[in-house]
Design a protein that fits this description.
Layout (H helix, E strand, L loop, with lengths): L5 H20 L1 H4 L3 H12 L11 H21 L3 H4 L3 H27 L10 H10 L5 H10 L8 H11 L1 H17 L5 H36 L9 H25 L4 H13 L6 H26 L2 H4 L3 H23 L8 H9 L5 H12 L5 H20 L2 H7 L23 E7 L20 E8 L2 E3 L12 E7 L1
Antiparallel strand pairs: 1-4, 2-3, 2-4
Helix pairs in contact: 1-3, 3-14, 4-12, 4-13, 4-14, 4-18, 6-7, 6-9, 6-10, 6-16, 7-10, 10-11, 10-18, 11-12, 11-13, 12-13, 12-14, 16-17, 16-19, 18-19
């Protein structure tokens, strides 16, 4: 009897999605990263759980490639140039030099560890560096899923710096992984000069190609709008948004394939293309952003569940001890050393921000996706590499992912006065020259009185709603305010 039917695939897929979302909701209560929940759900449905068999590394790599393109594009769309401009230097250094240092330091440690008689791994130098390279990039989805759910603000521009690093460091890890695989399989030259030239080519073509494709996408969207102006029947606004969103997705994959064909880094190009589009004037920008965000969440859920299905938990037992040692080294030594060395030229960044950035070296889905490349290339010991990467990812999520907020609080980096992104579900049309702003009241706001008429609001601002716990209150001048109340204000731009 054939159990692999389209109906069964849809049944299993829908069950995984529903289970992942429901279990993921509980992560907010315990501070667990969503990625960890989805990975565990996938493992629960896998061969050592409910018995679903999935071990096709080629399919996993292809699905991961599609998902990573969407995730990076969404990250670029949400990156505001005005926010990252003050931290552009340290963010880019962390995403390039920091990744190189993490891979090099960790790779040398793995090589040293492989020489110990009591370990069950025996990697030469290049496979050791390859293992480290697959894990050298950080994951932004889990970290900011926790910070976003808890409405935590960070001082010293740490949030945009970490967003920039996490969004732009995957291409460097990818390039290192590919270069090392080519060196191992075909004996390519691994001299410093050849590595630098390869990185310059990948980064140069990727950056230029991503920017140009972003500008082309903007022109295509403008062309689509012009084509409908002469029609007697005007296109519905929701249809316009849907068609533009579909065109943007097409541009994402076109950017990746064209830049990759030109020997550039397609992932970097996709991220930069997203930045260009995210900072451009687009029709119904908020609607487009919500669509892309939804696609990114779907991509993350699918790839996390798939990776959970892909691993065989019983195989990780053999590498558990050595993985624990390598993971502890990355958390306590590899990441902190690379961060402190990378940020050494930026003297304005203090000790506490550097310690926090070191702790937020969270591993996620990307290292596991990159760990499939050695398996597909049939490199000796590739299965061990995959299982070690998966184990260290789980370790990182359990230790670092569940303590991000606590570490930020202990280091005194939480900004209680930061404006909230919670707009109470209220949206404004893009063509209205106004914006929404939310503030949470504290004792300082109420020092002159506890009503709106006693408060000094910024010029051009008007309070339109008060949120107290789960209650929404229509404001007036005599309404008594309490510390902890959230005020939704509309202001001119």
């Amino acid at each position: 009897m054939d159990y692999i039917t389209s109906e069964n695939i849809l049944l299993i897929g829908s069950a995984l999605l529903i289970a992942g979302v429901l279990f993921g909701k509980t992560s907010y209560r315990f501070g667990f990263p969503l990625l960890l929940i989805f990975l565990l759900v996938g493992m629960g449905f896998g061969c050592d759980g409910l018995g679903i068999q999935f071990g096709n590394m080629h399919s996993a790599q292809f699905i991961g490639m599609i998902a990573l393109c969407i995730i990076l594009f969404s990250g670029g769309m949400g990156t505001k140039i005005s926010a990252i401009r003050p931290v552009l230097g340290p963010g880019l250094v962390l995403s390039t030099v920091g990744v190189l240092l993490t891979a090099g330091i960790t790779g040398l440690f793995i090589w040293w560890l492989s020489g110990m008689s009591w370990t069950n791994i025996h990697f030469a130098l290049l496979p050791s560096l390859l293992l480290a390279a697959t894990m050298s990039s950080t994951d932004s989805a889990s970290v900011f899923g926790i910070l976003g759910s808890q409405k935590v603000g960070l001082r010293n521009n740490l949030r945009p710096m970490l967003e920039l690093e996490s969004g732009s460091n995957d291409p460097m890890a990818y390039m290192l992984t590919i270069i090392l695989i080519e060196t191992i399989t075909i004996g390519a030259d691994l001299s410093a000069g050849s590595i630098i030239m390869e990185l310059l080519l990948q980064f140069g073509v990727g950056a230029i190609g991503g920017y140009l494709m972003g500008r082309i996408a903007i022109r295509l969207i403008a062309l689509y709008q012009r084509l409908g102006r002469g029609s007697k029947v005007q296109e519905d606004a929701s249809q316009l948004t849907s068609m533009v969103a579909i065109m943007m997705l097409g541009c994402v994959f076109l950017t990746f394939t064209l830049v990759s064909a030109l020997s550039g880094n397609g992932y970097l190009a996709v991220y930069i293309c997203g930045i260009v589009l995210g900072n451009a004037q687009l029709p119904n920008h908020r609607g487009l952003s919500k669509f892309i965000d939804g696609m990114a969440w779907l991509a993350q859920i699918v790839v996390f569940l798939m990776l959970g299905l892909l691993v065989n938990p019983h195989e990780m037992i053999d590498v558990a001890a050595v993985s624990l040692i390598i993971g502890a080294f990355m958390i306590a030594v590899g990441r902190p050393v690379s961060v402190f060395l990378s940020l050494a030229p930026f003297r304005k960044i203090g000790l506490r921000p550097k310690l926090f950035v070191s702790w937020v070296g969270l591993r996620g889905a990307v290292p596991i996706i990159f760990a499939t490349y050695p398996v597909v290339a049939e490199i000796e010991g590739a299965s061990q590499i995959f299982n070690i990467v998966f184990f260290i990812t789980l370790l990182s999520l359990l230790i670092q992912g569940t303590s991000v907020i606590g570490v930020a609080c202990r280091l005194g980096l939480v900004d209680d006065t930061a404006e909230s992104d919670d707009n109470f579900g209220v949206e404004l049309a893009d063509d209205i020259p106004t914006s929404l702003q939310t503030i949470t009241l504290n004792s300082a706001h109420l020092s002159r009185g506890n009503t709106l008429r006693d408060m000094t609001l910024p010029e051009g601002c008007l309070v339109i709603m008060i949120k107290r716990g789960d209650r929404y209150i229509v404001p007036n001048g005599t309404r008594r305010l309490h510390a902890g109340d959230k005020l939704l204000m509309i202001k001119e731009t």
